Amino acid sequence: MKERSIEDQCRKCHADTSKHYHKTSSDRPDPTGRPLTCTSCHPPHAAKYEGLLIRDVQRDLCIQCHDPSMGPMPHAQGAKR
């Protein structure tokens, strides 16, 4: 599925992405080298972690792309999204 198609499919149910914690696209690739899309962090059908995330947000999701030395993020301080 193409990057735009993924976003369009997700927005059929999740129309208001202004309340989402993270942007749904970027010029930088995701950790697999593909364009950043919703499915970079959220598998569309099932996931082991809360919020349909591919990794634990309290431990290692964010550091797949972000430098952990930059300090804590709101999720790491207990924010639920």
Chain-wise SSE layout:
Elements: H1 3-11
List the keywords.
1 helix, single chain, little secondary structure, globular, 81 residues
What does this structure look like?
The protein has 81 residues and is low in regular secondary structure. It has one domain. It contains one helix and no strands. It is globular and about 35 Å long. Mean pLDDT is 77; it is low at 75-81.
Estimate the global geometry from the Cα principal axes. globular
* Number of structural units classed as domains: 1
Strand fraction: under 5%
Radius of gyration: 13 Å
Uncertain parts: 75-81
User: Level of helix content?
Assistant: 10-25%
Q: What is the CA–CA distance across the termini? A: 26 Å
Number of helices: 1
Q: Can you summarize the main beta sheet?
A: none
Mean pLDDT over the full residue set:
77
Number of strands: 0
Order of helices and strands: H
Structural class determined from secondary elements: little secondary structure
